[in-house]
Amino acid sequence: MKDLHLITLSVNGTEHELVVESRRTLADVLRHDLGYTGTHLGCEHGICGACTVLVDDAPVRACLVFGVQADGRSVRTVEGLADPDGELSDLQQAFSRCHGLQCGFCTPGFLMLAEAFLAECPEPTEDEVREVVAANLCRCTGYQGIVEAIKQTADQRAGARGGAAADRGARA
Amino acid sequence: MTAEPRADTDGRWVGARVPRREDRRLLTGHGRFVDDLAGPGVRHAAFVRSPVAAGRIAALDVSEVPAGVEVFDAARLAAGDLAAVLDRPEFVAMTMPVLARDRVCHVGDPVALVVADDPYAAEDAAEAVAVEYEPGDPVAGLDAALARHAPRVHPHAVVNTVLDVRPFDDPAFGTGADDDPFAGADHVVEVSVRSARVNAVPLEARAVRAEWNASDEQLVVHVSSQVPHQVRTAVARAAGLPEHRVRVVVPDVGGGFGLKCVVGREEVAVAVAALRSRRPVAWAEDRREQLTASFHGHEQVHDLRAAVTADGTLLALDADIRCDVGAYSVFPFTHGVEPLMAAHELPGVYRVPRYRVRARAVATHKAPTAPYRGVSRPQIVLAMERLMARIAATVGLDPVEVRRRNLIDRFPWSGVNAITYDAGSYRESLDRCEAVLRDEGWYARREEAARAGRHVGIGFACFNERTGYGTGAFAARGMDVVPGPDLAEARMDPSGTVLVTSGTLGHGQGHETTLAQVAADQLGLHPDRVRVRQGDTDLVPHGWGTFASRSAVVGGAAVQGAAAGLAAKVRRIAAHLLEAAPEDVELVDGRAVVRGTVVGMPVAEVARMALHQAHRLPPGTEPGLTVGATFDVEGSGTFSNATHGVVCELEAGTGAVRLLRYLVVEDCGVVINPQIVDGQVRGGVAQGVAAALYEAVHYDADGNPTSASLMDYLVPTAHEVPRVDVEHLETPCAFSRTGAKGMGEGGTIGAPAAVLDAVNDALRGTGVALDAVPVRPQDVAAALRREPTHREAVR
User: Fold this and answer.
1) Is A35 on the interface with B (CB under 8 A)?
2) Range of B520's domain?
3) Which of A140, A146, A153 is the best residue to mutate to test the B interface, defined by the most B CB atoms within 10 Å of its own CB?
4) In whole angstroms, what is the distance from residue A93 CA to residue A137 CA?
5) Cα–Cα distance between B59 and B80 in angstroms, integer?
6) CB contact under 8 A, A40 and B721
7) pLDDT for A88-123, tens place per residue?
């Protein structure tokens, strides 16, 4: 007997209503029931972080959460990072510029991890970035490009904020 | 990313830091990996695997399996064996059944395949299959397998030694006669070096989705692989289909590192199950299966004995190499790949005047081994660099100086191992690497640290990497399916854009970018107008995929040849249309122009006329704008080289090794894309550091894997992997057309030796030398607890 539940889920701003088995992971719900295949499964036991998504803006291993636990929550996945018109976010651009990806399989997890981290800690040191990046595994890059991409994004945003503040100051 | 840089290398794209074309889809979640393609209506497979390392299958009971689930055992699947043999007398076959028939040979050996409507139901069903085993006696290590009266992994083999080669011998060794170099040598230096069994751990584990396409009458197999055409051959053989009835498509691949350059049983089993059931079937390997039942590598012991002069010069080398290859031979490379590579390439960058080697492949009740990044080169470099350190300690010289005295310094160099080394920068890379670390003050800091009671060490590794093995090199091994040449096609469409196909298979290396750069230069086009396609056996005529750092050398040369051929045809047609001589027409910035004039026309216009108005072609010109080219490597091929320099500090309490500085001075000939080369080096170093300090596949004495999760198999994180700086020297390859040498594995090859050398340097004065990887913290801590017994002569 399957134990089925009706849940609602907002993914990247789109509302979904679906029936899931209680044992079905959020990762499988996103990937196979809703088609958000950008979220990848690398270990299914919570170590590699490839499946990291944001649930109510907090990074979560989607392989360790059941779909039913996300009922009524708001989920962000890698598909929601770029502008609707296709322009890559500053973070995505930095990953490419810094060669922060090779095979690209772990990349969505790192992007979502970084997205949440930079929201919480907008002006990190390189050591702080490295510590956060150590939450996930990458087998191709040696992490250097990933660390640089996140740090550069933070610095650019800080620069933009500084610039905006300076502009406001000048106007005042 | 929207604006690409102009070529910054004399107007050429080769050498430019072109951003990767692959990135956009991978950054937006639009990459397509095999498991992303499952789709509705697909059935899901799960494997029933052996829980015992050795034994006989006594009974298989499917009575508890729920309705609607199909179960395939070996008899019902009828997919036969994956046979990978070498045609040489020292080779003992270890044929790998697609599903175990009567015996199991390692924990994780697949015994049956179940197919259900979703992956959860498939796993439930696999658990409902009851298999009764009569356990046998396992051998789970080299020493156990080589012991007298050891249980045999395969009853047909007399012993567990399944390859035993002595390709180079020297009858004088050990005779004590005048010509025995060991008899008269100033010193005989010995070292025994071990490296642990490791796993490539691509973040995307293996995956396959297979479906019988009734319209095309083809079995279509999407698979995460480095070698699509070899998968096609294996599936066609197992399914009893001619090759044209099988189409293999490789979409994005989430890392391979060699693990996916062999054909897995599971890929074949799922494909055949889809054919038998006429239903689409998908399988995504879970991490436990990947860690215990895919492929491992690098488990080797090297016993070296060297005759040396008082000034540290090598006179002779005598080596005994044992490789634990696990239970089966892998298609197409066989279980001979590690011992043969090690025996032939051991001398590496050093002058070894006389050489004797014995290399063995030893079967054990463990998962089979496959080529893993570096294939024996990490081990031979580890062995040779430990030997250099031991020689230095014995003769009382600086180890860097001992290396210098023994490095090959004239090219081409014909070695005692019947290999001719093309030009490289062996000496220069070592000198540069040492000079940089010295200028940065690391030697002074090492001494300061010692005075303060801290343990800082500096280590090096010098090595070369044979890249782009040709047909001859593989044929010499006696392979049945002989890799080697590659084939590329360049075709232009009426809008003047070009599609290039290549038999290589990028899986993170950025081939869609680098091969486009190579073609763009030939055609005078922006790389944006060159699209690269790989990995579809209906689209790519044939190829050997990507392994052994072959893609830039072999694939790049084939692409350059095809693009040059297409460019020649475009010039010929343009010359006719422009009423000029073909030799006066050049392709620049998307235009065909008469050299030295303003007369010209867009390449797109030439293409449009050539394809839409074939009556305007020059007389006698064949219609069409498609040109193919092949390339193969002759002789010993080409060798890239590098020196790795490492500074480490040991933590006395915990025995932890912290890497303070990592520098690579490398030479891979002409660099096609510096950003991609640096990325390959850094990623390789990360895997080498992993092997040096963290990763090991463990089995207990009964053959039970005890590192079956990523909590136990320690893939390093950004916390452990250091920043790596890369400097380039450039000794172009004379024959690869682009001048490039391969470099995909070098980082992994050099890192274990360099790190271990640094650790031992930091242990100087303790009287302890560590000769095995991974370095265990308890060994470091124990060494540092010891009272200094004697100071090593040099350090």
Assistant:
1) no
2) 485-631
3) A140
4) 21
5) 20
6) no
7) 999 999 999 999 999 999 999 999 999 999 999 999
Q: Does B426 map to a domain?
A: yes
Q: Tell me whether A133 touches chain B (CB under 8 Å).
A: yes
CB contact under 8 A, A99 and B675: yes
The ipTM is 0.96
- Residue B250 per-residue DSSP state: -
Across the interface, whether the CB atoms of A142 and B678 are under 8 A apart is answered no
Residue of A nearest to B121 (CA): A2
The number of C-beta contacts closer than 8 angstroms across A and B is 176
DSSP state of B479: B
Residue B185 lies in a domain: no
- Burial of B5 per CB tally in 10 Å (0-12, 13-18, 19+): exposed
Half-sphere exposure of A33 (CA within 13 A, CB side): 20
Name the domain count of chain B: 2
Same domain, A94 and A164: yes
Q: Do B660 and B780 lie in a common domain?
A: yes
Q: Are residues B743 and B618 both part of a single domain?
A: no
What is the spatial distance between Cα A47 and Cα A61, in angstroms, rounded to a whole number?
A: 9
- SS3 state at B555: helix
- Domain membership of residue B4 (yes or no) is no
* Among B575, B601, B631, residue at a domain's last position: B631
Output the pTM of the full model.
0.96
Write the secondary structure of B186-232 as one string of H (helix), E (strand) and C (coil).
CEEEEEEEEECCECCCCCCCCEEEEEEECCCCEEEEEECCCCHHHHH
User: In CATH, what number is assigned to the domain containing residue A132?
Assistant: 1.10.150.120
Backbone φ/ψ region at B478: left (φ over 0), alpha (ψ -120 to 50), beta: left
Using the 3D structure, point to which of A53, A80, A107 is the last residue of a domain.
A80
Q: Are strands B103-104 and B281-284 parallel, antiparallel or unpaired?
A: unpaired
Domain closes at, from A48, A80, A112: A80
A85 in a structural domain: no
Chain center to CA of B617? 46
Buried b (16+ CB within 10 A) or exposed e, B684-719: bbbbbbbbbbbbbbebeeebbbebbebeebebbbbe
- Both A73 and A98 in one domain: the answer is no
Residue B688 domain-assigned? yes
Instruction: Tell me the residues of chain A between 54 and 93 that have a Cβ less than 8 Å away from chain B.
Output: 77-79, 81-82, 88, 92-93
Mean pLDDT to the nearest integer, B87-96: 95
> CB B679 to CB A145 under 8 A?
yes
> Which amino acid type is present at position B316?
A
Judge whether residue B790 has pLDDT over 70: no
Q: Which of A36, A95, A137 sits opposite B27 (nearest CB)?
A: A95
Whether the link from the prior residue into B412 is cis, omega within 30° of 0, is yes
Chain A CB contacts of B510 under 8 Å are 102
Same domain for B761 and B642, yes or no, is: yes
Dist CA B541 CA B276 (whole Å): 27
* B chain contacts of residue A137, beta-carbon cutoff 8 Å: 203, 710, 715, 717
Answer with the one of B593, B612, B631 that is the final residue of a domain.
Answer: B631
Pair (A132, A157) in one structural domain? yes
Within A49-121, residue ranges assigned H as helices are 90-97, 107-120
Whether residue A166 has pLDDT greater than 80: no
Domain that holds residue A21: 4-80
| Res. B573: pLDDT tops 80 | yes
Chain A residues with beta carbon closer than 8 angstroms to that of B202: 103, 105, 139
Q: pLDDT per residue over B136-188, tens digit each?
A: 999 999 999 999 999 999 998 889 999 999 999 999 999 999 999 999 999 99
Which residue, among B455, B436, B605, B587, has the nearest Cα to B526 in the 3D structure? Answer: B587
Statement to judge: residues A70 and A131 lie in one domain: no
Which CATH number does the domain housing residue B600 bear? Answer: 3.30.365.10
Q: How far is B33 from chain A (nearest CA, A)?
A: 8
Q: Which of B23, B38, B721 sits opposite A142 (nearest CB)?
A: B721
